[in-house]
Design goal:
Order of helices and strands: EEHEEHHHHHHHHHHHHHHEHHE
Number of strands: 6
Structural class: mainly alpha
Largest sheet: 2 strands, antiparallel
Shape: globular
Distance between the termini: 23 Å
Number of helices: 17
Radius of gyration: 22 Å
Helix content: 55-70%
Low-confidence stretches: 1-22, 428-459
Oligomer: single chain
């Protein structure tokens, strides 16, 4: 049975794939759900394709152009919080796997499968759909605009996957010197920022260093280091992080617009991550009460099982819907007008309506494919090759932009990676280090070590 613990209250339900008692941190699930909802709503308020008088098509970030938006995005830039929660659940999954005799290769295999399978389906469908649009006579510029916009979530996939694959290594450093590890990663982030003016391409190294540093904050949450701070200490940490953030942006060292600081990321995102990790710990009691409400828990659990599909597909669906509307006589109010703002709820409803059949068709790809107990694990070379095959097209898209041809090549690479990874064998019950493997990449046949954890299939 899958045990759900909230403030000492346990709820039981049927466990998938033989999974037994696992503690679930509903606060982490709730926070991730809220972050995902904010991302979807925010994108629906940002994307605004514009048909120019000469027939050319451009895109406009209407929300980002508002003068009041810059201070607001300091609060609603939740990408660091995604990595904090990913660090929390990722570390605990690795600790469970290692305690059962698992290896870093098995951890990497599970993480790759969890992210690459739904992404492979997305890239394949996007390539076929946009290619069909070209054959049907849709202007190539419109197709390219939709391709570029739809591919934006892929940078997150690459950064998140790079951070997650480093968890076994970073966990070793964390066990020996948790605060020093964060400090070293922060120093690397600052060093990259210092040289990015002279070497612009070097800035992309922070896609690894920055997000690994933020993920490391999740390690501090998972192991209770932040919980040892008093409430006043947590408040002080939040104020200090925002004070430094205000200082570096006020002096003009960094932009005050957090969207500008997002890709490639810089120190500002790490400071936001510190503030958000401390806030997560500070408000955990209240969040625990909210996550314990039955209907909220039900919504979060349903959405959590398909969170990666929602994240990957919502922007391509939004881009496709916006592009198709340009080809019709449907009223298209000018971006930023009152009519445009009033239309945003309709756009959001349209995206949600399109997500329903997508979730039904592709949501199951988030489930971890498990082979029989007699199947051997994949060799390390296959897992490493799969990781390289995945990162090649993603790196190309990040540096040179996503094109239709690269979209097709990326789809082929992702499918090849899935084939290389295969399925993860269940461990034979009763053997040493051979307990059953949970669907989130962890292993369990009994209660986890003390402290909250998440049995959610985390992206």
């Amino acid at each position: 049975m899958l045990g759900l613990h909230v403030s000492g209250v346990k709820e039981a339900g049927p466990a998938p794939q033989g999974e037994q008692a696992v503690q679930r941190d509903l606060v982490i699930d709730l926070v991730r759900f809220v972050c995902l909802a904010l991302v979807v709503v925010g994108h629906c308020m940002m994307v605004s394709p514009v048909l120019q008088g000469d027939g050319t098509v451009t895109s406009k970030n209407t929300l980002g152009d508002q003068p009041w938006f810059e201070p607001v995005i300091w609060i609603f830039m939740v990408m660091p919080l995604f990595f904090v929660t990913g660090g929390t659940t990722g570390l605990q999954s690795w600790q469970r796997l290692r305690a059962r005799g698992g290896t870093g290769v098995e951890f990497a295999q599970a993480r790759l499968l969890r992210l690459v399978r739904p992404a492979a389906a997305l890239l394949a469908v996007m390539f076929l759909g946009f290619w069909a649009a070209l054959l049907l006579g849709v202007d190539a510029q419109v197709v390219q605009l939709m391709t570029t916009g739809a591919g934006m979530p892929l940078w997150f996939l690459a950064a998140y996957l790079a951070a997650q694959l480093n968890i076994p290594l970073l966990a070793r450093f964390h066990e020996r010197a948790p605060w020093l590890t964060v400090a070293v990663l922060a120093a690397l982030v600052v060093a990259i920022d210092c040289f990015r003016g002279a070497l612009p391409m070097l800035a992309y190294a922070n896609l690894v260093f920055l997000w690994c540093a933020v993920q490391q904050l999740g390690f501090l949450v998972a192991d209770g280091h932040l919980a040892r701070l008093s409430r006043s200490g947590l408040v002080g940490l939040i104020l200090a992080a925002n004070l430094v953030l205000g200082l570096v942006t006020g002096l003009g060292l960094y932009s005050g617009n957090m969207l500008v600081n997002l890709n490639p990321p810089n120190l500002c995102l790490l400071l936001l991550g510190v503030s958000q990790a401390a806030a997560l710990q500070l408000f955990r009691p209240g969040l625990g009460w909210v996550s314990g409400v039955r209907w909220i828990r039900g919504v979060v659990m349903v959405a959590g099982r398909r969170s990666m599909t929602v994240y990957l597909w919502h922007l391509p669906l939004l881009a496709a819907m916006s592009g198709l509307l340009l080809l019709t006589d449907f009223p298209k109010p000018a971006a930023g007008t009152a009519e445009w703002w009033w239309a945003r709820p309709l756009v959001l409803l349209g995206v949600v309506a399109l997500l329903v059949p997508v979730l039904a068709a592709f949501g199951h790809l988030e489930e971890r494919p498990t082979a029989s107990v007699h199947t051997r694990g994949r060799p390390a070379a296959a897992v490493v090759t799969a990781a390289v095959v995945v990162f090649i097209p993603v790196a190309d898209a990040a540096l040179n932009g996503l094109t239709l041809g690269l979209l097709g090549g990326g789809a082929a690479c992702f499918v090849l990676a899935v084939l290389l990874l295969g399925r993860i064998p269940e461990r034979v019950p009763g053997d040493v280090g051979a307990e059953r493997v949970a669907h989130d990449g962890s292993q369990s046949d009994g209660p986890l070590p003390a402290g909250p954890s998440s049995a959610n299939v985390e992206p």
